[in-house]
Amino acid sequence: MPVNRGIVVDDRLRSDIQNVYALGECAEHRGTCYGLVEPAYEQAKVLAAHLADGMVDYSGSVVATNLKVSGVSVFSAGDFLAADNGEILVFNDERRGTYKKLVVADGRLSGVVLVGDTQDALWYLDLIRTTASIEAIRGDIMFGRAIAQPKAA
Ligand SMILES: Cc1cc2nc3c(=O)[nH]c(=O)nc-3n(C[C@H](O)[C@H](O)[C@H](O)COP(=O)(O)OP(=O)(O)OC[C@H]3O[C@@H](n4cnc5c(N)ncnc54)[C@H](O)[C@@H]3O)c2cc1C
User: Fold this and answer.
1) What does the alpha-carbon distance between residue 135 and residue 62 come to, in Å, rounded to a whole number?
2) In this structure, is residue 57 part of a structural domain?
3) Distance, CA 35 to ligand 1 centroid (Å)?
4) Domain co-membership, 33 together with 105
């Protein structure tokens, strides 16, 4: 059975041995081993569907973290390092302690880092997960849902 950092599985969580599956921290999917609970839940749903003769594929998880660092809220999700050559948009207000970094690729939000003000974290995460086009709201997306969403319809 091929093992790199984890047991290598395909989009149905199958190893290369018939009827042997892997998910969670021990599994490696498309080169990624996840170290969080949520991807394992997503993998479990796909595997359950597969075992029930469903036709659902697992294409990977968008990993998000929400932390307090020395009392400061910090959120990150997706390709926040712009490893896939996305465009980087940055807003930095040092006096208020607010920093935002958005990564845009192919007209879609692919990653985000928020420091200080994380109230729009789940909105940004949803934009990443749904791969919705942000072209119509690009000018306002940095300022959050309340300002950008009225134009998003
Ligand atoms: C300190 C700490 C804090 C964490 N905090 C977070 C967090 O805030 N948020 C988050 O999303 N993730 C967190 N994680 C990661 C998260 O716990 C793991 O990603 C998750 O538990 C992985 O689930 P799993 O079912 O794949 O593996 P595990 O939870 O490790 O389960 C594997 C099970 O297999 C059993 N086992 C091992 N070997 C054998 C064997 N040979 N035979 C039979 N049974 C065996 C083990 O006893 C264990 O019960 C944290 C991890 C640690 C260590």
Assistant:
1) 21
2) no
3) 8
4) no
